[in-house]
Amino acid sequence: MGFTYTIEPRDNFVFATAEGTIAFADLQEHMQTVISDPMFQPGMNAVADMRNAQIAMTIEDIPDLIRLFIQQAKTRKRGKWAVVMTRYPERHLLHFFITFMNHLPFKMKAFGDTGDALNWLRDSDQNRARHAR
After folding, report:
1. Exposed e or buried b for every residue in 66-104, given b needs 16+ CB within 10 A?
2. pTM reported for the whole predicted model
3. Per-residue pLDDT tens for 73-96?
């Protein structure tokens, strides 16, 4: 099935859901679609609910995946990305990937629950607003 998403400009976030088998090409297409959407603004936070997805990427996809996230960092600038994932081994691989990509200008974190992910994003926006005053 792939990805679906909504953009909430007032809440400063993109909410994506993935279902079915997700290959690298699916992720790449989704990310390009989001940043091409007229409602998208650099710096938006993102939640990707991947609980109903099976990741079908291979070791050969890793260099392209890294390049994709570096390119996304240039476009998206900052913000936080929350990934909701409960399947093993995907969640463990996600933790490894997040650690490996910690030099990017946005923060990524894995969650097992959408509510926890949204709270993490809302807390960051509230802290950013307090420091801007």
Report:
1. eebbeebeeebeebbbbbbbeeeebbeebeebbeebeeb
2. 0.83
3. 888 777 898 999 998 888 777 877
CATH architecture, domain defined by 2-125? 2-Layer Sandwich (3.30)
Which residue, chain included where needed, has tokens 């894995």? 110
User: Encoding tokens for residue 77?
Assistant: 């600038």
- Residue written as token pair 């936080």: 80
pLDDT of 44 > 80? The answer is yes
Higher pLDDT, 96 or 51: 51
**Measuring CA to CA, which residue among 16, 54, 51 is closest to residue 33?**
16
> What is the spatial distance between Cα 22 and Cα 58, in angstroms, rounded to a whole number?
11
pLDDT at residue 19 is higher than 90: yes
For residue 60, what are the CA distances in angstroms to 26, 42, 55, 88?
15, 29, 14, 20
